[in-house]
Amino acid sequence: MLRHLHPQPFPRRGEGGITLISRVNPMKPLKTLFLLLLLTLPLAAQGALEIRITQGVEGAMPVAIVPFAWDGGASRPPEDVAGIIAANLNRTGRFSPLDQEEMPQRPRAADEVSFATWRDQGSEYLVIGRVQEADGDRYAVRFQLFDVASGRQLTGYSIPVERSHLRRAAHMVSDIIYERLTGDRGAFDTQVAYVSLTRQDGDLRYALQVADADGHNPKTVFSSSEPILSPAWSPDGRRIAYVSFENRRSEIYIQDLDGGDRTRVASHEGINSAPAWSPDGRRLALTLSREGQPDIHVLNLADQSLTRVTQHRAIDTEPTWMPDGRSIVFTSDRAGQPQLYEVSVRGGEARRLTFEGRYNGGADISPDGRRLAMVHGAGSRFRIGLLDRESRLFRTLTDSGMDESPSFAPNGSMIIYATSEGGRGVLAAVSDDGRVHQRLVLEEGEVREPAWSPFLD
Amino acid sequence: MLNTLVRLQAVKILLVLVVVGTLGACATADRHPAGTPADEWPGGTDQDARAPGSLDPDVEARPLGRDDRPLAQALDDPDSPLSTRVIYFEFDRDTVRSEFVDVIAAHGDYLSRHSEARVRLEGHTDERGTREYNLGLGERRAQSVRRMLMLQGARDEQIQVVSYGEEMPAELGDNEEAWEQNRRVEIVHEGGR
């Protein structure tokens, strides 16, 4: 099922006395606005993830997202669009949205905005908007973004949307604002896959789930009484590869998100695990131990042919592709302790990448290929570390003891990872500068193994 | 550093005590969330041991190592080394500790005398480190046990190795007491096919 959300540039308006510069930001047609709606298969929703910002930030860009006006029958719109946008921007660490209580005014339209007031208040950018009820279940979400200093409108759109997709419209608005103000593409209208673990009548239930990037709308893709591991998104966001123990051993499956079609792609003797899609989506790097020890292999999905990439007595696992598709970064304990290495897809000599600390594994590469997020272990503490490949600068981003499975947002601005809170598995995210931390907590059970989706367009 | 060494020694002694204390009773049905509880084994044992006995009268009569009794009885005997089905490991190590050598040898000996017998070696780790790396480590532990079984005459086709990594802890909790229970290989006898 395809749904199109057509953005229409908003007519420019100015406050009396302030002249708008004639050129409105010529947003290139945003691919994100033509959406394939995933997950149309009948999926059971589980408890939503609740997000808690656990550490604030100073020095972020002050913005004000005024509560959106409501033109509709009911007393309130079904979602707090401005609140969703503010929470999204806040999570990145780059913005500091103004508390609604502290807003000097709540303009419903451009001609109600007093920029002088906002200048005094200190916000650098201002967003106002309105949710209009069209016919039946259809709404239009209109918004405008202003530069407070100049009073200029930087961008504005009207987005028609079905009632049930109002949150999604708020994420799209967030993406447009983020891109306009930072120059980088926003990643709010994306999703996260993860594995949940619940106990029902004493029986364990593992579920592969997909939720919005802010933890809302979780849907179950696959569930089993046996462990599920290592979900990996295909580059087009339409399929997920993962490890399932449903046959009491590790095997790799690929599942379509829009049709539910499910294929077993690796079931060799020994370990079948750690799937990672090549950037072109045609190959899967994986760990197989059919030759006696875990080694990195590449599976060509078209003809099922297998190429062995590493050949070492050590444990070689957790492959992840460089964005150019030519080399693979993986974990190996060939030097005695797990460290990260890089090897050509065609095999050959592997080059060691990490030297800091005695345990570095589970790498994820930033979309631009410049940074490596990893699980960094010291003693019995495991934290998320970030290595800048060019400068070789290494830093830890997190400060708890059981952090693993780092996964970059598709724009590289944040990293989601698994951690433990009071002995319970939870998901957490950290901005790439390490300044903003948040927890995503499932109402019941545990969550682990997060994987951030690519851009979904 | 010295302190650490002393503490390590203490932990080792404690480990041995724990292992000795759990011998025989260390079948993990109650703390094993999803795998095959080792407790299911005795039911299958009688059958497996009797069946070959009826085909080959010599088998039942043959003594097992230092044990003078027939095999079937030895398998059911809580005092037999065969009743130990869980082998524990040190952190991030896959070498079999000396106190388990005799146990594994007894299982290997049993397999070599019962060609129809099958075991599944389930390798496990504690929760520290990444899940995927731990899958590799769990397999390496199971392979260590497999090699020792084969030294005793067990054949390749009798042994299935599977790694669960850290996914099926025997004990929940993020402390050393739980971790040492979780770093293990479970020997699951599946009997004849």
From TrEMBL, chain A:
Cross-referenced PANTHER family: PROTEIN TOLB, PROTEIN TOLB HOMOLOG
Family indicated by similarity: Belongs to the TolB family.
Compartment(s): Periplasm
NCBIfam families, A to Z: propeller_TolB (TIGR02800)
Assembly with partners or alone: The Tol-Pal system is composed of five core proteins: the inner membrane proteins TolA, TolQ and TolR, the periplasmic protein TolB and the outer membrane protein Pal. They form a network linking the inner and outer membranes and the peptidoglycan layer.
Single Gene Ontology BP annotation: protein import
Name of this chain's protein: Tol-Pal system protein TolB
Function: Part of the Tol-Pal system, which plays a role in outer membrane invagination during cell division and is important for maintaining outer membrane integrity.
Keyword hit for rRNA-binding: no
Organism lineage string: Bacteria, Pseudomonadati, Pseudomonadota, Gammaproteobacteria, Chromatiales
Organism: Ectothiorhodospira marina
Chief subcellular location: periplasm
InterPro entries in the cross-refs: 6-blade_b-propeller_TolB-like, Tol-Pal_TolB, TolB_N, WD40
Superkingdom of this protein's organism: Bacteria
UniProtKB/TrEMBL annotation, chain B:
Pfam name, any one: OmpA
Location of the OmpA-like domain: 76-193
Compartments, as annotated in UniProt: Cell outer membrane
Signal sequence extent: 1-27
Cellular component GO terms held in the UniProt record: cell outer membrane
Bilayer topology: Lipid-anchor
Biased composition annotated in UniProt, kind: Basic and acidic residues: 59-70
GO biological process terms held by the UniProt record: cell division
InterPro entries: Bact_OuterMem_StrucFunc (IPR050330), OMP_bac (IPR006664), OmpA-like (IPR006665), OmpA-like_sf (IPR036737), Pal (IPR039001), Pal_lipo_C (IPR014169)
Stored Gene3D superfamilies: OmpA-like domain
Region Disordered, residue ranges: 28-78
Keywords per UniProt: Cell cycle, Cell division, Cell outer membrane, Lipoprotein, Membrane, Palmitate, Signal
Superkingdom: Bacteria
Function: Part of the Tol-Pal system, which plays a role in outer membrane invagination during cell division and is important for maintaining outer membrane integrity.
Family: Belongs to the Pal lipoprotein family.
Subunit structure: The Tol-Pal system is composed of five core proteins: the inner membrane proteins TolA, TolQ and TolR, the periplasmic protein TolB and the outer membrane protein Pal. They form a network linking the inner and outer membranes and the peptidoglycan layer.
PANTHER family reported for this sequence: LIPOPROTEIN YIAD-RELATED, STATOR ELEMENT OF FLAGELLAR MOTOR COMPLEX
Protein name: Peptidoglycan-associated lipoprotein
Organism field: Ectothiorhodospira marina
Name of encoding gene: pal
